[in-house]
Amino acid sequence: MIGRLHGILLEKRAPYLLIDVHGVGYEVEAPMSTFYELPETGNSVTLITHLAVRDDSHTLYGFIHERERELFRMLIRITGVGTRLALTILSGISVEGFIQCIEHEDITTLTRLPGIGKKTAQRLLMEMRDRLGDWEGGGGMPVHRPDEGPHTGGALEDAVSALIALGYKPPEASRMVRNVDGADTMESEEIIRQALQASVRRSQTDR
């Protein structure tokens, strides 16, 4: 079991990372909450990891905070919630926000996340309520805002691709990116962050 990686961040293209650890390149998938706090490529990074082993693949999932990994591991134990959906949940809502959804039985916000219908949201509420009761809740996560730098022409395309990889349909992903004010001057991580935050705000308005 690989529980931690410390090395040089070589590539980051949401939701995928490549980390060099003493000459070995580890491919890692990470939620957007982790992407927001990553350093620039070429710098050292430490991730807490979860190794998912299947017959046809071994996949590493990486997280900046232990609480993210704990929630990820709780989510993948729920019937119908695999690693991909768990990653999507952590990308679309903070740990604190998810806990509040469970405590307030907020199905509307949960169903705004791609891949979560009403039945899945109800299952999350039912199965997570008791588990969160045994888990010390709260504690919001700091959000990293990337330093402003030269805008790359592919940032918009990268943001759309990342949202699609997280489960959003291509037309919806494109619309979410277009609705971000000033997106053409931002880096992809910031575009994604604002697009996801706007989606959560719409769900709260619709309640």
Coarse morphology = globular
Structural class: alpha+beta
Fraction in helix: 40-55%
Largest beta sheet: what is the strand line-up? 1-2-3-5-4
Radius of gyration: 17 Å
Fraction in beta strands: 15-25%
Secondary-structure element string? EEEHEEHHHHHHHH
- At CATH level 3, the topology of the largest domain is DNA polymerase, domain 1
| CATH architectural grouping of the largest domain | Orthogonal Bundle
Tell me the number of helical segments per DSSP (H or I, 4 or more residues long). Answer: 9
pLDDT < 50 runs, ≥5 residues: 137-153
The biggest beta sheet, please?
Answer: 5 strands, mixed, barrel
In CATH, what is the class of the largest domain? Mainly Alpha
Straight-line distance between termini: 42 Å
Number of individual domains? 3
Mean pLDDT: 83
Number of strands: 5
Q: Quick one: CATH superfamily of the largest domain?
A: 5' to 3' exonuclease, C-terminal subdomain
Overview of this protein structure:
The chain is α+β, with helices and mostly antiparallel strands and 207 residues long. The chain has 3 domains: 4-63, Nucleic acid-binding proteins (OB fold (Dihydrolipoamide Acetyltransferase, E2P), Beta Barrel); 66-133, Orthogonal Bundle (DNA polymerase, domain 1), CATH 1.10.150.20; 155-206, Ubiquitin-associated (UBA) domain (Helicase, Ruva Protein, domain 3, Orthogonal Bundle), CATH 1.10.8.10. The chain is 45% helix and 18% strand. It has 9 helices and 5 strands, in the order βββαββαααααααα. The chain has helices spanning 32-35, 66-75, 83-92, 95-103, 107-111, 118-133, 155-165, 170-178, 188-206, and strands at residues 4-13, 16-21, 24-29, 44-53, 58-63. It has a 5-stranded mixed barrel with strand order 1-2-3-5-4. A hairpin with a 2-residue loop joins β2 (16-21) and β3 (24-29). α2 (66-75) crosses α3 (83-92) and α7 (155-165) crosses α8 (170-178). The chain is globular and about 45 Å long. It starts with a strand and ends with a helix. Residues 137-153 have low confidence and may be disordered.
